[in-house]
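Researcher: Quick one. two chains, 690 residues in total.
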Amino acid sequence: MSYSKEELIKIQEAKDKWQVKVDKTVAKQGERKQPFVSSGFNEVERLYTPLDTPGSYSGKIGFPGEYPYTRGVQPTMYRGRLWTMRMYAGFSTAEESNRRYKYLLANGGSGLSVAFDLPTQIGYDSDHPMSEGEVGKVGVAIDSLADMEILFDSIPLDKVSTSMTINAPASILLAMYMAVAEKQGVPFEQLRGTIQNDILKEYAARGTYIFPVQPSMRLITNIFEFCGTKVPQWNTISISGYHIREAGSTAIDEIAFTFANGMAYVKAALKAGMDIDSFAGRLSFFLNAHSNLLEEVAKFRAARRLWAYIMKERFGAKQSRSWMFRTHSQTAGSMLTAQQVNNNIVRVCIQALAAVLGGTQSLHTNSRDEALALPTEEAVITALRTQQIIGYESGVADTVDPLAGSYYIEALTDKIYNEAWEKIQKIEEMGGAEKAIELGYIQNEIQKAAYQWQKDVESGERIIVGVNKFQIKEPEPTGLLRVDPSVQTAQITKLKDLKSKRDNLAVSNCLDDLRKAAKGSENMMPYILNAVKSYATEGEICGVLREEWGEYVAAVTL
Amino acid sequence: MAQRKIRVLVAKPGLDGHDRGAKVIAQAFRDAGFEVIYTGLRQTPERIVATAEQEDVDCIAMSMLSGSHLTLMPKVTKLLKQKNMNEILVIGGGVIPGEDIPLLKAEGIAEIFTPGTPTSVCVDFVKNHVKH
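Model:
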């Protein structure tokens, strides 16, 4: 990457001459736009040259598997092992979802990813008034360990890794997973997986919070501590930018806000007395794989370099594992269209390619019908095949970080790195992510960008194929997945049945112990584990915690 | 005397936390000159109707992406009917299958705006249909 001063001067002179010619062309013919702005809101120049990428190879780019990990967190990357093809799935009952998991595994899916319904995500049982109409709709309904046992029936937890998209009640679902493993005879040390467990982005962008900030952060640090010794292969958190980007943020803000949240978790754990290297190696991330392929690749590379810097230089972590930015990615759901749904297959392919060229550790690809409903089996198989074709046929996985050295990619990597860090420091000056969310700063920045996006689409400045250009008249789509309302009735019946068969005295005792622990400052996990094993329902456990800790009151920031 | 601005309540019924659409439409309504109140998340039908009454709105606009629209939207219109608040225009948007739209209209929801609809279409609909 280093050019001699003389060479750079020569390039500058040549560029100036070239510029004169270009200006004449542009004056005559114009360009399609002025300026060109990426979908992540970065301005894109006509041409990038060595003049745009100052600095040496060794410091900024380096080698995969070595600080600052710009080129990848593992030295061999996909030559060693392809990324995990981890398809987010779950709907209706545990039985139905178990079927879908087996289908995905049989078709080459290499890891599980559980989608829970909204009542489960928000700590309500299926029979709670707030659950009406919501049971099993956006994910699987899990009311108790009994449902969890069905969910993983005949799925060996020592052979499969599982990611669970669960936040406020993550401790409970993790405890249920551990209880299922115990019944299977699998020791906790062998369990591999992730819980999303990222409450700050719930407050800022996703909305499935339960408790106020302090007790929520306590639960998170309790999980760091507990898993550090008991479930050492488990990723205790998936610090997420996906949802922030989906809510409308710029690409730079996706990284800035994710990392500000990450820093808040690190600080909370340090405040709780933990040694940084005891938990940092199990922090993981979750990024959006958006439509502008080149920008996304630069974003991923900038993220690796920046997190490494933050962990090593800002927090002083000593172990290299603590410096590594390991991430899951999902193709941008918000870019799917309800119109001409087959176009979405193409979109997802480009987005998936971006994530792979970006060096993701695992990937979910959306199905073509997901602007309308949860995916059918038919639609989801194409989404999975997309990853397999990229991995086995395109060749991009056969060499590490192939786009490195591109003048554009390196210049944009630097830009995202620098501007994200600037924004993070701004948030740190405000008092950190928790304060920034309290003030509505993060929400407002997201909303500003989301509104600008909508204005750009409506003015035609930003083209969405099939929506504001190349529209056709088409019939209403058919054959979409629908979750039957009978799922709710079935769950309610299951709950009645469970409560009549279990040892209610044991449940009551466990809940009492849980309540005492909630009032104190011990690690909550052992108490949650006991409650879960007694077949206390998720709603009952969260009910106790709601009583002790209260509920988060969101400030309306519009 | 200056004409009273059209007052719209933008609401998020149920447990759904996706508020990008609700916030965008709220801002579009504001830019169009409406007075907009945004409820925030986790609204029960009862709360939505109470707020609508309190704020003396002309229109309730509900945004739903979680699939519970057939349960929650009709509850709102039923409550409005019970409380004799039938003058209020009720509209909705979000991830709502086409085949559900006639069912919702039968329950008193005047129109559903599905993904890809320009905000100007929603603005014009409110202007043309609100009882003001």
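The radius of gyration of chain B is 13 Å.
Researcher: Thanks, that's what I needed.
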